[in-house]
Amino acid sequence: MLDVRRLRLLYDLSRLGTIAAVAQAHTYTPSAVSQQLSALEREAGVALLERNGRRVTLTPAGRVLVVHAETVLAALEQATAALVAVATGLTGPLRIGAFPTAVRTLLPATLVALGRHPGLELTVTELDPVAVPDALRERRLDVGLLHDYDVVPVEPDPALDTMPLLDETVFLAIPEAGPPTALAADELSADAGSPADGSALGAVRDAAWIVATPGTLCHTVTLQVCRAAGFTPRVRHRADDFTAVLALVAAGQGVSLVPQLAAAQPPDGVRLVPLPTRRRTRIAYRRGAAAHPAVAAFVNAIRAATDEFLTR
């Protein structure tokens, strides 16, 4: 019989790549992880790993077992959800991960709704969406929010199930007047209900830009959108918080791309021009966890909060 905990270590090795990374994710020592994987090989009766000095790779048998491990781990999530479902009321921890704009706009009403279940122990962690999949797989989160953009789609994670929550307009945020844009009115003629074409971006090709930190999805999206319009943005400032971004735009320090959630209440001095680009947010949880009562309650609550927010 194969030990499930050891299967999880093998699965994590397949995605993390090194025994050291697996050890860090599980707060084990590398030696302990190696011992557990060796024990799994004895249980399986075949070699699962090829060792070459400090490097470890999966054998063909190891890769086959990883595929089955995904199914086993998802089935365990389903079994856990079924057991919890027969209990009376919603109880236990619910660890939520979300990006800053969602924490500010969608989660307050969501948490109020979930607060009607006093047995739930709610914990929110503000995370960049790129960190959410690992946190879910490593069981540091129970549910989280992911997003991508139509211009930079993200491949689905086989260990996770997701469902759509929100499809947002992305805006070009510009100062109302004055440098650095000095744009003619006819160049930015789109209204809030009609996305502008590439001419809006072309009109700010020589402007100073406020962009996110390199390596973040928002930074990649800005570069992609500008390059598609035929130019590379001239970066003046870097900021990851959209409140700070909009304050800099209002101060005439540059232009930026801002999604709908972040642009709900722009400061005075900012004009928002809708673009065809879309940001897509999804609710994510481990495969098999959809029927878990706490996860289902979160899904219902955040969907209601999102609908309420969009109708304001």
UniProtKB/TrEMBL annotation:
Pfam families for this protein: HTH_1, LysR_substrate
SUPFAM superfamilies: Periplasmic binding protein-like II (SSF53850), Winged helix' DNA-binding domain (SSF46785)
GO cellular component: protein-DNA complex
Family annotation (InterPro entries): LysR_HTH_N (IPR000847), LysR_subst-bd (IPR005119), WH-like_DNA-bd_sf (IPR036388), WH_DNA-bd_sf (IPR036390)
Domain HTH lysR-type positions: 2-59
Domain of life of the organism encoding this protein: Bacteria
Gene Ontology molecular functions: DNA binding; DNA-binding transcription factor activity
Keywords assigned: DNA-binding, Transcription, Transcription regulation
Family from the record: Belongs to the LysR transcriptional regulatory family.
Record-given protein name: DNA-binding transcriptional regulator, LysR family
